[in-house]
Amino acid sequence: MRGKIGMFSLDSLINRLTALGLKVDIQIHPRAEPSERKRNQQIFETENANVKLASHYTEMYIIPMKDVVFEKTSLDDLREFPLEARRDAGRQLDRVQRGKEPFDSKPMASIGSGVREIRITDAAGQFRVIYVAKFEDAIYVLHCFQKKTQKTSLPDVKLAKDRYNDLVRRLRK
Questions:
Q1: CB-CB contact of 67 with 23 (8 Å)
Q2: Where is 14: in which H helix or E strand?
Q3: Do the strands 115-122 and 125-132 form a parallel or antiparallel pair, or are they unpaired?
Q4: Largest Cα–Cα distance of the chain, in whole Å?
Q5: From 53's CA, which of 12, 81, 87, 111 has a CA 20 to 30 Å away?
Q6: CA angle 79, 81, 85 (to 5 degrees)
Q7: C-alpha to C-alpha distances, 47 to 51, 84, 131, nearest whole angstrom
Q8: Whole-angstrom Cα distance, residue 26 to residue 19?
Q9: Backbone angles phi, psi at 88, to 5 degrees
Q10: Could you give the CA distance from residue 77 to residue 86 in angstroms, rounded to a whole number?
Q11: From CA 145, how far away is CA 73, in angstroms rounded?
Q12: Residue-wise pLDDT tens for the chain (173 aa)?
């Protein structure tokens, strides 16, 4: 959902969005050429909004961000990844929160509708984050693990599938 808005007080805009319980990414695009944009850009961060503000702008977009919900032990499993793999997973999940595609992912239809796998390659090995973002309220991380073979192991697929089915049942109630 993107919408243009007119003149505003940046503080009042963030306060209103925060009061509504929204996490958003606010992007204000400058008139300047792309090479000049970086120089003119200031970045403000608050708990519920990332705001990029340029000195000369023509339009502003408010992009709602979904929360990330870790199912069962998936957060603990992610914390066991090496530092660089954790950072990469965080960057890619942040892209999903902003409505973008991760840098390296593939669909996992065998687990469920809308389920995707983020693929991370690190010096320590290959890591996977299985998530579903099709639900309106949040991105659900179903399972995080280190991949040890060419094909994803059946126990990992079964665990993610069981968590997906539990999630769907819970959300239907």
A1: yes
A2: helix 10-19
A3: antiparallel
A4: 55
A5: 87
A6: 115
A7: 11, 24, 24
A8: 16
A9: -65, -45
A10: 10
A11: 11
A12: 344 444 456 667 677 777 777 776 666 655 545 554 444 444 444 445 555 544 444 455 667 789 999 999 999 999 999 999 999 999 999 999 988 999 999 999 999 999 999 999 999 999 999 999 999 889 999 999 999 999 999 999 999 999 999 999 999 98
d(CA 15, CA 152): 45
What is the pTM for the complete model shown? 0.72
The two tokens of residue 69 are 């919900």
The letter for the amino acid at 36 is E
| Listed residue (112, 92, 101, 96) closest to 160, CA to CA | 112
Phi and psi at residue 97, to the nearest 5°:
-60, -35
Q: How far apart are CA 165 and CA 151, in angstroms?
A: 22
Q: Which residues contact 172 (CB under 8 A, 6 or more apart)?
A: none
Calpha distance 93→141 (Å, rounded): 9
CB 130 within 8 Å of CB 72: no
Count of all residues that appear for the chain in the document:
173
